[in-house]
Amino acid sequence: MLVSRFSVSLEVELLEALDHYVADNHFPNRSQALRQLIERNLVEKKWQCNHTVAGAITLLYDHHKREVASKIADIQHEALKEIIAVQHIHLSQDLCMEIIAVKGQARELTTLADKLIGLKGIKHGKLVMTQSDSLSENEKAAHHHHHPHS
Ligand code: NI
Question: Across the beta sheet with 95-105, what order do the strands follow?
Answer without folding.
Answer: 83-90, 95-105, 52-62, 122-131
